[in-house]
């Protein structure tokens, strides 16, 4: 299907097999357009970014050049499964403390926002420990990451673009300083000989990819589970596995609904002719609900046949490097935080703005019904 989005034509691929075919053929379909701004940026916004020294060279997700495997290997080493596993106890203790405090508030009849009060900064705090990213100003990082997702992936008007470019540009300048002398991953990328723009680009993408996607997913998953009492009961009595719940959540509620590739030559996808240069939007969320791979596509049935065959993390040469980390964080949150959901009503469901790729839920507020409340 060809569709128009703010004046740009995209070919939308929806079937699981075809989405996978495109993702795993980097020769015919390059990743170069992955971070292109959906709404073309006016000169005024470009000037704001340029004043702050903003550049986004091909680094990770948008890099089909020969430099990609080397950069990817350094980042992958920082996110190795054993390093991720080492963070689990610390994260469990922190989530447990937060859940205890939130339980007290719920018991007192107060509303609780599971996004703002629980999930919004969790991924950043873990990431900061794992790859030594600056976590001191978590709200600033969250604001920057959300601004970046809106600036590059949302339909935005010129005034909004200017404001977003200012937020993104300011934070990019902070990252540039950190990239020049920061420890951890920044130091390892420098030691591996990558130029400053690449170090900044990698940190920029990790903060967006590692922080926002995961906090969005945790919020969406908790909201989904709120409406699945049988699954909550199965988790509580141990008949449903936590990891199966996480996979089914990734399949049904992936925080990244689409991802892009660009055709490098004239080709065909299924019966459709695709000219060289065409922008291809891969509907990852649709692929997870394809009846050809999963038994009951729209039902939340942890462990059902096909549940793990989702493409929430992409596939092939650019497959997500944070998949293990996301799974660990989501498992901890499901284990520790789902008891909060029982016996509560939804005061405010997550609202997701118009965005080509990211869900960006803004809140998820629950409360215990009491004599004076009507939830
Ligand atoms: C629910 C959470 C997440 C989702 C749904 C997600 C999804 C994705 C997707 C769809 C891609 C593009 C894959 C492709 O082009 O084939 C990607 C790439 C990437 N993700 Fe994630 N991601 C998540 C969390 C994370 C986390 C926590 C990190 C790191 C801390 C991370 C790091 C990366 C990196 C570095 C890439 C680029 C890999 C490359 O181009 O070689 N992601 N992710």
CATH architecture label name: Orthogonal Bundle
Number of helices: 15
Strand content: 5-15%
CATH superfamily: Cytochrome P450
Number of domains: 1
Considering DSSP H and I runs of 4 or more, what fraction of the residues is helical? 40-55%
Structural class: alpha+beta
Please give the order of strands in the largest beta sheet.
1-2-8-5-3
Q: Catalogue the ligands.
A: protoporphyrin IX containing FE
Describe the structure.
The chain has one domain: Cytochrome p450. It is built from 15 helices and ten strands. A five-stranded mixed sheet has the order 1-2-8-5-3. Strands 4-10-9 form a three-stranded antiparallel sheet. The protein is an alpha+beta fold and 375 residues long. The chain has helices at 16-23, 43-51, 68-78, 81-86, 88-107, 115-119, 122-131, 138-153, 158-181, 184-191, 196-226, 229-237, 242-252, 284-287, 323-337; strands at 2-5, 8-13, 29-30, 112-113, 258-263, 267-269, 272-274, 279-283, 345-348, 365-367. The radius of gyration is 21 Å and the shape is globular. The structure holds protoporphyrin IX containing FE. Protoporphyrin IX containing FE is lined by residues 23, 31, 60-61, 72, 75, 79, 123, 127, 206, 209-210, 213-214, 217, 254-256, 259, 284, 312-316, 318-322, 325-326. The site of protoporphyrin IX containing FE has 32 residues, from α3, α7, α11 and α15.
